[in-house]
Amino acid sequence: MLTTIIYRSHLHDSVPIKTLEDMVAKANNKNQSSDVTGILLFDGRHFFQLLEGPRKTVQSIYDRICVDARHHNLVELMHDFAPTRRFGNLGMELFDLREHDKATVLQAVLDKGTSRYQLTYDDRALQFLRTFVIARDKENYFEIPAANTWEFIADEPASTLQDDIMASLQDCHFAFQPIIDPFARRVASYEALIRTPNGGSPSEYFSAFGGEAIYHADIQSKKLAFQLASALGIGDHSLSINLLPMSLVTVPNAVEFLLAEIEANGLVPEQVIVEVTENEIISKADEFAAEVSKLKAAGISLALDDFGAGFAGLSLLSKFQPDKIKIDREIISNVHKSGPKQAILHAIIKCCSSLEIAVIAEGVEQAEEWMWLEAAGVSQFQGYLFARPQLNGLPAIAWPEIK
Ligand code: C2E
Ligand code: MN
Ligand code: MN
């Protein structure tokens, strides 16, 4: 199958521009023997390459480019399939945009085309090419430093429970994971994640219950979450708890119960954030909205969890006006390498900024993901890069520092 991959990248500072011709000639030999064609543009700093050819070989050439140290901030813009090649000439010509005057440059690039697309823009691949040539989206290029610019240094030892409190835990436990603002060196909140007594996952914990018992267990468990948070010395920090939307709807007086337990453990509603997952909200939206208004009226904040993973997405922002959204790990992972993910995140961030909704990125595992997101305007993060959840304790946090 004829596959097209388009990427852009940044020539690494250590590569002398003079050596480019040679580098391209070598790459060309490989491309020719594997029937991969296309076009390579260079503007003095960035590359833009369109690769066309059989699926496997295009992918393997692209995989090699991804690990080539001469490319930096490499972003895949398009990965698609097509009936014919746009640039079918043998090999891959290097086209230096600096050698042409602005008025004719785009036509000069298109003249290298070999298909009927030559003079039309009615094609996504050629639209990308045009955007690159006229440098329309340069403000969206976040040229982040290499991951090894930073080291992550763990802070104070974790806070864990005294043995007598540990012994009193029976039915369920909680693991705590911080949400942090790394540059401000501030913990924004600790999220309480439910565990079985053996440290098993939330789904394992809830699988012991059937029918409506799940919702009662969900609400009841929060008594322990507040107790633990208080015993662990959460102090003025915020505490995020997870609830199924149906728990609030099904369990009689759920909000009253939560408020009473917050108070009984010396916490205040203003420091508590309730996280709900977007794709569970939809079924009884009106009843859920009524419970949310009670939470809000008492001072508790609302966060939409796993934002972008479900199908309700943007419409929920107008229905519930949450205080925060947590962007699902699926969109966060490898964002620094993916044009589509970057475009989605730009849109989410812009939308939330207009609505004054705080944005949290979850599941951040790589320094590059964190740096890209900081550059895009996100300042709160949760993920293994900074801290893993700790069972019945507040974990140490690995704060980033420039080496
Ligand atoms: P969630 O609220 O989105 O919580 C984040 C999950 O991602 C947690 O999994 C956490 O351990 C994991 N995680 C955090 N950082 C990373 C990372 O960098 N990489 C990866 N791969 N994973 C990361 P966990 O604890 O298994 O929780 C799964 C889900 O269970 C939670 O997702 C939440 O929706 C639900 N849950 C947890 N506690 C409760 C609860 O008390 N009540 C209800 N109803 N649901 C809960
Ligand atoms: Mn959550
Ligand atoms: Mn989540």
Short overview:
With 403 residues, this protein is of the alpha/beta class. Helix content is 35%, strand content 26%.
Helix fraction, binned, reads: 25-40%
Indicate the structural class.
alpha/beta
CATH architecture of the largest domain: Alpha-Beta Barrel
Number of discrete domains:
2
- N-to-C span: 46 Å
Mean pLDDT: 90
Q: State the CATH topology of the largest domain.
A: TIM Barrel
Count of discrete alpha- or pi-helical segments spanning 4 or more residues: 14
Major sheet description: 9 strands, mixed
Strand order of the largest sheet: 15-14-13-12-11-10-9-8-16
Which quaternary structure do these chains form? single chain
CATH class of the largest domain: Alpha Beta
Ions, cofactors and other ligands present here are:
ligand C2E, manganese (II) ion
Q: Number of DSSP strands? A: 18
Rg: 26 Å
Percentage of residues in DSSP E strands: 25-35%
Shape: elongated
